[in-house]
Amino acid sequence: LIADDDEYFRMALATILREDLGFSEVVQAASFDEAVTHLNKAKGFAIAIFDLAMPGIDGPAALRSIRDTYELPKLAVVSASSSRTHILQSLEAGAHGFVSKGQGIRALRAALRQIHRVGPQAVETAAEQAVQPVEEIEDGIAPMRARRALRRRHAAGDEQPRSEQQRGGHGPGQ
User: Which of 115, 116, 161, 169 has the fewest C-beta atoms under 10 angstroms from its C-beta?
Assistant: First the structure.
């Protein structure tokens, strides 16, 4: 399932899923509500890819509801945002990976291949080796290292990403 309001980006993702990952059928949705309708109708999606900035989605919180409601082996975020906060919130909500649309098609292809073919634990290790060229994000944190950093903070009882604490606990625009 590809949920993105950009028709051309959905087409590119569908091509990657068919040609690189061997999917025979790819379902596309232009809004969050349309994606939920597809999830309600069909079972057995191998992967769901969501954009964080499409009609009907309320950001990373919506990913948690998807993970809690539907059986999805893999959930990925492909977003124009490269905000450290969005990355950490998406991973915390259960996404297996986060790729910025600005990374380019080669990095997108490599990241989706890793997310699809290996388990969540292996994604973290393999990502540093095979998907490291997905380039460093904003504060120098690659997506999989961000997930590990988030787990360490949770283990230490620290709920907020460091950059939010430095701003007094408020996220962007608050």
Answer: 169
